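fold description:
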Amino acid sequence: MAEELTEMTVQVITPNGVVYDHHGTFVLAHTTGGDMGILPHMISTIAGLEIDELKVRRPEDKNEQVDYIAVNGGIVEVNRNLVTIVADSAERERDIDVSRAERAKMRAEREIEEAKVAHKTDDVRRAEISLHRALNRLNVSKHQ
């Protein structure tokens, strides 16, 4: 009898190319419908992603390593032990430029205040999304 697969392939793809491509034993994704835990042999599914961290538990001998990826929305598709995340942008924790993310956070906070004073609700919403992305990157960078 064939041995059952206990891991799956996890890929994170952006318009700039593949950001992440490894085997994993568990993935935690934050979808628009709530948190989704993905294990090997999960039924095929597709879901929208929130701006949040993606957690991938990798099999490394007896010690399991966890990788974190800052994902800025997108979709997750699970199909035959292949988990594919397609996002506008994504960064692994080790690739995040913390000072750049801090500057983006400060810029977004300033833009929110300016847009509120000018009563520009669309600009407030855009700046809030920018702030959420910057905070997500800073949060994921702390896992290093």
